[in-house]
Design goal:
Structural class: alpha+beta
Strand order of the largest sheet: 3-4-5
Distance between the termini: 80 Å
CATH topology of the largest domain: Enolase-like, domain 1
CATH architecture of the largest domain: 2-Layer Sandwich
Number of helices: 7
Number of domains: 2
Oligomer: single chain
Order of helices and strands: HEEHEEEHHHHH
Length: about 190
């Protein structure tokens, strides 16, 4: 294999693995292509052709129950490590305990593997996503609005909304404005 460059090796690996079947896991509402299923199919094919992969860059952040992770995964020729490509990827992990970072990293690696090798999975993350991200800022502001029992309390809530508006999406701001207007109507009755 030492005469093949990285692109030729990746091409050989792509010929060995063309599709990864979705699986239905207990307790899940939909079928997924798991990180483990991707690794189980891709890793042996890559090793056979002399390619390894590993993270070379990682940044992450946490907002409420959501961890985000941006990674760069390097694919390298084992016979000539300077013959490599870096594949940027990212992932999100939503978990209310300590599993968010691992989920985010696994998601990022899984998609780097799928995309670098052009693998089909039948996976449509836009269609399959049923987990809702609850922005803790929005939750706190909604609580402040609902607890306001007079105009002064609503004015305080309005100041907090204004203070955090740069951190909120247009949809979140619209939702808060709607809740604010409904609460003002209740108070002034």
């Amino acid at each position: 294999m030492s005469e093949l460059n990285l692109h030729q090796r990746l091409s050989a690996a792509m010929q060995k693995v063309s599709y990864i079947q979705k699986e239905k896991k207990q307790g899940m509402r939909y079928s997924i292509v798991s990180h483990d299923a991707v690794t189980a199919k891709v890793r042996p094919a890559l090793l056979e052709v002399g390619v390894i992969y590993y993270p070379v860059q990682l940044t992450n952040g946490q907002t409420g129950n959501r961890t985000d992770c941006t990674m760069v995964i390097r694919f390298a020729n084992v016979d000539n490590p300077s013959d490599c490509i870096d594949v940027p990827s990212f992932g999100y992990g939503i978990d209310d305990q300590d599993k968010g970072p691992g989920k985010a990293m696994s998601y990022a690696v899984k998609y780097a593997l799928l995309k670098a090798l052009g693998l089909e999975s039948g996976d449509d993350p836009d269609e399959d996503q049923n987990v809702v991200f609850n922005n803790p800022i929005v939750t706190a502001l909604e609580t402040a609005i609902s607890l306001a029992n007079n105009g002064a309390g609503l004015d305080d809530a309005a100041e907090e909304i204004q203070k955090h508006s740069a951190q909120l999406s247009a949809a979140e701001l619209a939702k808060l404005r709607q809740a604010f207007a409904a609460r003002r109507k209740e108070i002034t009755k």
